[in-house]
Design brief:
Blueprint (H helix, E strand, L loop, with lengths): L6 H5 L5 E5 L5 E5 L4 H10 L6 E5 L5 H13 L2 E5 L2 E5 L10 H5 L7 H9 L1 E5 L12 H9 L2 E6 L2 E6 L10 E3 L5 H11 L5 E5 L5 H12 L3 E3 L5 E5 L7 E4 L4 H13 L3 E5 L7 H9 L3 E5 L2 E5 L8 E2 L11 H8 L5 E5 L9 H7 L3 E5 L2 E5 L8 E3 L3 H13 L3 E5 L1 H7 L3 H7 L3 E5 L2
Parallel strand pairs: 2-14, 3-13, 9-10, 17-18, 21-22
Antiparallel strand pairs: 1-22, 1-23, 3-5, 4-5, 6-8, 7-8, 10-12, 11-12, 14-16, 15-16, 18-20, 19-20
Helix pairs in contact: 2-3, 2-8, 5-7, 6-7, 7-8, 9-11, 9-13, 11-13, 13-14
The structure holds uridine-diphosphate-2(N-acetylglucosaminyl) butyric acid.
The site of uridine-diphosphate-2(N-acetylglucosaminyl) butyric acid has 26 residues, from helix 2, helix 6, helix 7 and helix 13.
Organism: Paulinella micropora
GO cellular component, one term: cytoplasm
Subcellular location: Cytoplasm
Amino acid sequence: MNKGVGINEANQTLTPQLKVTGGRKLSGEVRISGAKNSALVLMAASLLTDDDINLRNVPPLTDIACMSNILLSLGAKLDHRVDNLSINSSNLNNSSPSYELVNSLRASFFCIGSLLARMGIAQVPLPGGCRIGTRPVAEHIRGLHALGAKIEIEHGLVSAVITSPQHRLRGTNIQLRCPSVGATETILMAAVLAEGETVIENAAREPEVTDLIGLLTAMGANIHGTGTSTIKVIGVRRLHGADYSVIPDRIEAGTFLLAAAITKSKLRIAPFIPEHLTAVIDKLQEAGCILKQDGIGVIIQANELKSVSFTTQPFPGFPTDLQAPFMSMLTMAKGASLITEKIYENRLQHVPELQRMGASIVLHKDTALIKGVSKLSAAPVTASDLRASAALVLASLVADGTTYIRGLYHLDRGYAFMEKKLRSLGAYIDRLNP
Ligand code: EPU
């Protein structure tokens, strides 16, 4: 089984790593967890009410633990049982999460909108860039300013204050310069308690935004235009508690579809909402995979793979979060594929690692030319970011020999029980030095 890399090589370090021996077909059914990027923002939205917010289907991820710590630091009470998370924010006593906490999770900046609407003041450190790009938050800040907040940015801290005598933000028209998911969510959370009507134009249409609107509506918010790029919010004075289930994680589902594709296997993946992944389904079908809706799930059957090309785009276009895993699949497809990454300026760091595994990829600026090869070979590799880690796991499933993958910190941020799930489908995968 250890054809590729000597076992000694893996044992030289106590670094956590995945050990994957490639070449196994997968079969069976995999359960998709709740969506990380929804759950994180729904947690931020829980700050908008005194009442209990009960979230179901919350995935067990380190990012969720980080967000929990942020809410705790603000004075919220949390009760987390399996995938059920109850949050009570009736005794918020801090409007200024620490740099240490915010720095560990970029999405925590998104709580600035709910914190401001609820407490009248929010001081949140600028999150800074991350490995995949600079990731500005200018649109979030511009939106809050348009809603009447007084904003100051000094010493790396964004201070937002409501100065109106009514202690409420005021509704307005906001035209986003780009359909930012986070900015749309931040503005939504601020606008639901504002006085009057807010219209967000060029809003993001991602399913996670729709999920946030679902929770806010369940809490008593008045929002129109769900799933479109023009969202209208009529502010209310108060929001109440709610019991709400997070949507299934479309990126995790897509990653398992690609696991089936690259290993030329048949899998059932559930729960699965096809409308959340239309662009990905189209490309998988173009590559030769057969997909069939099966109750609340989907069955994918993959055989020989053909090359396909795509450019990442905001929803409903091809999602950037599946660009890296899809590239892994295309390294084994017949012919030449082109992938262009248009959302982030530095999200092709998996390319050198895939090249080390024998993939034929030529990079030119934001575009990768991938020529399918008949075989990948195992090598020690390191994940540079969350989705790159998934890409390396997929490549290792078909590589000749045993691959050791480091950088699992990234994987654990966004994939619940990845190796357990793959093992249950028949993969030879283990975690060393957990
Ligand atoms: N942008 C700006 N100005 C802004 C905000 C964004 O120019 O003020 C640009 C960004 O630089 C980027 C693009 O807009 O080029 C998209 O950024 P967006 O704000 O939509 O992304 P986000 O809200 O920061 C969320 C997900 C990401 C996912 C993107 C795009 C969360 C917590 N994160 O980020 O998820 O890639 O939307 O779909 O919801 C991941 O899960 O691996 C991940 C990175």
